[in-house]
From TrEMBL:
<keyword id="KW-0862">Zinc</keyword>
<feature type="domain" description="Mannose-6-phosphate isomerase cupin">
    <location>
        <begin position="245"/>
        <end position="318"/>
    </location>
</feature>
<dbReference type="InterPro" id="IPR014628">
    <property type="entry name" value="Man6P_isomerase_Firm_short"/>
</dbReference>
<dbReference type="InterPro" id="IPR014710">
    <property type="entry name" value="RmlC-like_jellyroll"/>
</dbReference>
<dbReference type="InterPro" id="IPR046457">
    <property type="entry name" value="PMI_typeI_cat"/>
</dbReference>
<feature type="domain" description="Phosphomannose isomerase type I catalytic">
    <location>
        <begin position="8"/>
        <end position="115"/>
    </location>
</feature>
<protein>
    <recommendedName>
        <fullName>Phosphohexomutase</fullName>
    </recommendedName>
</protein>
<dbReference type="InterPro" id="IPR051804">
    <property type="entry name" value="Carb_Metab_Reg_Kinase/Isom"/>
</dbReference>
<dbReference type="InterPro" id="IPR049071">
    <property type="entry name" value="MPI_cupin_dom"/>
</dbReference>
<dbReference type="Pfam" id="PF21621">
    <property type="entry name" value="MPI_cupin_dom"/>
</dbReference>
<keyword id="KW-0413">Isomerase</keyword>
<keyword id="KW-0479">Metal-binding</keyword>
<dbReference type="Pfam" id="PF20511">
    <property type="entry name" value="PMI_typeI_cat"/>
</dbReference>
<dbReference type="GO" id="GO:0016853">
    <property type="term" value="F:isomerase activity"/>
</dbReference>
<dbReference type="InterPro" id="IPR011051">
    <property type="entry name" value="RmlC_Cupin_sf"/>
</dbReference>
């Protein structure tokens, strides 16, 4: 079987806080005014990605992995996770602030939800003037202080707010209280999990006048009340893979491509490329594939050598 770079039909999610930038900036086929997320590669239950190109078109990612687990996932990934695809890739458009939330760690998520935890990272693709993120507490806090501020609707006062610009990266370990602020487009890489504990939603109501559920009690022992250092600095050497995040769940590199780059993969892990700016071409087995801003491509582990060329900013993701 000859494997090739895989693209998927985007899974589009309307959100109370969403907008139209996923169409305007990333060319996603959205038709609503409140599209908040494009799930690019997912095996979350009931949201499994479907292949959009080549001979596997129409197959789900799970079907392909079941048929060719090591060839798709890689030797080491298959040993560690079996036939589970362990990551979820998204683009998000925050027209309004997202809720303040937290994600449980692997232990809590397995115990309560039979799920992975949700370690994640954000790459800021676009930010309006004065756009901000909330990441952790301003000072070391406590469960008592947190509850008091939550009850008094002053939680925002004890949380750390960060002004952001294009290219900023934040790595959010489980337990970090956080919120994506209005006016940002984010590329998000995370464990395969849809477990979120919503702490505060600014008392918003939906079109029917209903507030969204909060998960205050569940969150209490999931929260890290200490100050976190989540912002990541990284090099931007052209035509090289510059390390941003290297954690047990994923490794992410930044590639400022201006020319060409030969890639050799040891077949231990799949590779994913998210094109966050510009365009590039990938050549494999004398076939050339073209990608642009907002495209996400999965390179099965069995593809051990290929070349990329163009002028683009890219995120390269794999599992060490």
């Amino acid at each position: 079987m000859k494997f090739y770079p895989l693209q998927f039909q985007p899974i589009l999610k309307d959100r109370i806080w969403g907008g139209t930038k996923l169409k305007d900036y990333l060319n996603k086929p959205i038709s609503s005014e409140i599209t908040g997320e494009s799930w690019e590669i997912s095996t979350v239950e009931n949201d499994v990605s479907v292949i959009a190109n080549g001979v596997f078109e129409g197959k789900s990612l799970n079907e392909l992995i079941n048929e060719f687990p090591e060839q798709v996932l890689g030797t080491n990934v298959y040993k560690k996770f079996g036939k589970q695809f362990p990551l979820l890739f998204k683009y998000l458009d925050a027209r309004q602030d997202l809720s303040i939330q937290v994600h449980p760690n692997d232990e809590l998520a397995a115990k309560r939800h039979n799920s992975f935890g949700k370690t994640e990272m954000w790459y800021v693709m676009q930010a309006d003037e004065n756009a901000r993120l909330i990441v952790g507490f301003k000072e070391n806090s406590s469960q008592k202080e947190y509850i008091e501020n939550l009850e008094n609707k002053t939680l925002i006062d004890i949380l750390d707010t960060k002004k952001v610009k294009k290219g900023d990266v934040y790595f959010l370990e489980t337990g970090t209280v956080h919120a994506i602020g209005a006016g940002t487009v984010i590329a998000e890489i995370q464990q395969t999990s849809d477990i979120t504990y919503r702490l505060y939603d600014f008392d918003r109501v939906d079109a029917n006048g209903n507030t969204r559920d909060l998960h205050v009690d569940l969150a209490l022992d999931a929260i890290n009340y200490d100050v976190v250092d989540a912002e990541k600095s990284y090099s931007k050497v052209e035509n090289e893979a510059n390390a941003i995040v290297d954690c047990p769940y994923f490794t992410t590199n930044f590639i400022p491509l201006d020319g060409s780059l030969e890639v050799v993969n040891d077949e231990n892990s799949f590779l994913v490329y998210m094109c966050v700016e510009g365009s590039f071409e990938l050549k494999h087995n004398d076939v050339t594939y073209s990608y642009k801003t907002g495209d996400t491509v999965l390179i099965p582990a069995k593809i051990s050598e290929f070349e990329i060329h163009g002028k683009a900013s890219m995120l390269e993701i794999y599992i060490s």
